[in-house]
Design goal:
The protein is of the alpha/beta class and about 375 residues long. The chain contains 11 helices and 14 strands. The chain has 2 domains: about 220 residues, no CATH class; about 130 residues, no CATH class. Helices cover about 35% and strands about 15% of the residues. The strands form 4 sheets. The chain has a 6-stranded mixed sheet. β12 and β13 form a beta hairpin. α7 packs across α8 and α8 runs antiparallel to α9. The chain is elongated and about 90 Å long. The two termini are about 55 Å apart.
């Protein structure tokens, strides 16, 4: 029986790699994925993240229609043409802070730009639930491999994998070696000036376990670069903290803005105020409309007409059971959408006591609420 985590079962399977001046890592990784796993992983498409010079080398060495080693690999190992999509469009050149294509990554600014570029691509490739991503950190500069692996830790899902490919001496870093051919060949080692048979080549895929922190990362509509994503995750990993910013009139949980309409934010703020002031969980029949309206004024703009439209029926009818049930439901949804299902747990509105006198309140400690 297949597990949801089996990468080979997904309709879209992506091999993503960083490469530098040695595009061989692509065919070496392909060979290992095909030949050295109990369940071969044949990607449906390949994407490279590289510099301008790395892109030129990859196009010439891998994608030349006649001599490109990607095409010769597919022919030699009976992979039908078109089964793996890999064209110039799948070679992505890292952009600098001004949007320029980077020829190399040498400065601190280049590193920041590369980190952001890599992080955004990993976030994009992990958006679709129908996709399995295999990330190889075998190529490129060490910092690029680090950022790629870290980005997968931030955004990776159960079906995604991280690996490094190991090549034995003297084939490691040998310009003429791209993969072990079906029929052994003799190649002349460039550095040692001697012939060697590819029959002695060993390609090993090293699977790298990684911690998946996806539930703490920003949603796709608010994707950030590397530093901002780390900051976002770090805030969510810290102890719970609820804060109301009087200037912006917004609520923040663990430093993350809560996306709530004013009336929903007011309801949550009202319960937070009660907890901060030592009040007990409130039953709807005991609720004072004026206390809720005070919180509502705090989150509204001065010239909003929403307050008057809410005030009149509340003062006339009081706070009803339906009012509290509906507002609680909308608060819970907003918390989970803003923070993620697991991260929202300490901030959720809870029911306290037993029916029919069950009241609503927050589990947060008063010291964790800053108003």
């Amino acid at each position: 029986m297949n597990s949801p985590a089996d990468p080979d079962q997904y309709s879209k399977r992506i091999l993503l790699s960083v490469t530098g001046l040695s595009p061989q890592v692509i065919t070496e990784t392909l060979y290992a994925l095909l030949m050295q796993q109990q369940r071969p992983f044949i990607p449906t498409e390949i994407h490279l993240l590289t510099t301008q010079e790395g892109a030129e080398r990859a196009k010439l060495a891998l994608l030349d229609p006649k001599k490109g080693r990607f095409h010769t690999f597919c022919r030699e190992y009976n992979i039908p043409a078109g089964k793996i999509t890999f064209t110039d469009d799948q070679i992505h050149i890292v952009k600098g802070e001004q949007g320029e294509a980077l020829t190399d990554i040498r400065s601190a600014a280049d590193n920041r730009a590369a980190a952001d570029y890599i992080t955004r691509h990993v976030a994009h490739f992990t958006e679709s639930p129908d996709t399995a991503l295999h990330v190889s950190i075998a190529g490129g500069r060490k910092t690029m491999g680090f950022y790629l692996g870290y980005a997968l830790s931030l955004y990776g899902r159960e079906q995604d994998r991280l690996s490094h490919v190991l090549i034995n001496a003297p084939f490691e870093s040998e310009p003429q070696f791209y993969y072990p051919p079906r029929e052994a060949e003799v190649i002349d080692l460039a550095k040692e000036n001697r012939p060697v048979s590819t029959a002695n080549a060993e390609v090993t895929l090293a699977d790298i376990p990684f911690v998946r922190m996806r539930h703490g990362t920003p949603s796709s509509e608010e994707q950030h670069g590397f530093d901002k994503t780390i900051e976002h995750v770090q805030k969510k990993l810290g102890p719970p903290s609820l804060r109301f910013d009087h200037e912006s009139k917004k609520l923040y949980a663990g430093g993350v803005e809560l996306k709530m309409s004013p009336i929903i934010a007011a309801y949550y703020l009202w319960l937070a105020q009660r907890k901060k002031e030592g009040g007990l969980p409130i039953h709807w029949s005991d609720a004072n409309p004026n206390h809720f309206l005070n919180a509502y004024r705090m989150v509204l703009n001065d010239y909003s007409g929403d307050y008057e439209r809410t005030e009149q029926p509340l003062l006339r009818d009081g706070i009803t059971k339906d009012f509290t049930a509906e507002k609680k439901s909308r608060v819970q949804k907003a918390l989970k959408k803003s923070l993620g299902k697991d991260e929202a747990t300490p901030y959720l509105i809870e029911n306290f006591g037993s029916r029919p006198r069950q009241g609503q309140g927050l589990k947060l400690d008063a010291e964790q609420i800053h108003l």
